[in-house]
Amino acid sequence: MEKIKVGVLGATGMVGQQYISLLAHHPWFEVAYVAASPNSAGKKYCEAVAGRWQMMFDVPAGVRELTVQDANNPALADKKCVFVFSALDMDKQQARELENAYAAMGIPVVSNASAHRGTDDVPMLIPEINHEHIAIISAQKSKRGWQKGFIAVKPNCSLQSYMTPVFALLQAGYAIKRMIITTMQAVSGAGYPGVPSLDMIDNIVPFIGGEEEKSEVEPHKILGKIADGLIVNDESIRISAHCNRVPVVDGHTACVSLEFGDKKPELEEVRRIWRDFKALPQQLNLPSAPVQPIIYREEPNRPQPRKDRDADKGMAVSIGRLRKCNVFDIRFVGLSHNTVRGAAGGGILNAELLKAKGYFD
Ligand code: NAP
Fold first, then answer.
1. In this structure, are 145 and 163 located in the same domain?
2. Which of 40, 112, 201, 350 has the fewest CB atoms below 10 angstroms from its CB?
3. Residues contacting 254, CB < 8 A, separation 6+
4. How many angstroms is it from 347 CA to the middle of ligand 1?
5. Statement: the pTM of the whole predicted model exceeds 0.90
6. How many domains does the chain have?
């Protein structure tokens, strides 16, 4: 099968580098176009990331010599790639307009940026949870007069640590009334160079700008339903979030307490639901889909970022410490790799779902 040529916007950043690494041996997609800020534009990719390449392996051979283009000029991507992954870190309004411009040109955008997460005709996907939201794309295209282009996004990186286990319980018929989340988020979540080392070493920073608001709002859209060409949020879970930056390189951890409605599962039933959970990405056997989307760790001191973030290619969510909560009903700890499942790997899984459903034909 001939591979689909893809572009990466923001290819030089933390998430962009993860895209370049994960796509190096992808069976369906091949990186043919890289773009970033005007500072990197004109340089060979390997020169643009020299001294700030953060991945475990060297820059893949197929990308080393590509010339980085200015992501602000969508016309440069014309005919170079079928669709782009967007990992741009820029002003929200600017990013929104830029992603619109790519889509208007006929280049679909699979984005990690927060710019379009609140846009009600843009699907915000975790394919194990709300793959049916891709149906909104036809309304999005016709409303905006876009022929081939469209925009699909993924949610904030920390949500991946707990939303799939929460959804598995909802799907099993256990309504949730309230949820309190306390996240411990890795430094790579702040991009490169990110938080100054003097703020991070031997320290915890109990503030990540905008993160608590995203954690409290984005689940409502993910759990929403399509009605009249829009995604209507489901606000039935009240959410309170505390988000902290901790001195961990990769892997966001979340301590979660849940209050159910009248029907409350036993702990053994919760474990069974998580262990048995499979969804469309597993049924379709998408290349990046984890075999087991939720891995329950029985050890009393797991999950841990260093030991569990890479579970199943960094795409599985590791869960542990399920126990009764003295205030709500249950509590547990969730963990996922923020730049893989929470960013580039999640974006690639979204693209695989879109490809499998014919959206790039
Ligand atoms: P980053 O390391 O700071 O990288 C930012 C990228 O955007 C670089 O390629 C940079 O190019 C480019 N860029 C910055 N300003 C630009 C401009 N004015 N015009 C064109 N390109 C510009 O950030 P990151 O952590 O990779 O995050 C990228 C996006 O993913 C953000 O929207 C972030 O919120 C989201 N995200 C991040 C994570 C994570 O774990 N890090 C998780 C989920 C989502 P230069 O190198 O040329 O400056």
1. no
2. 201
3. 158, 161, 162, 181, 182, 183, 184, 333, 334, 335
4. 14
5. yes
6. 2
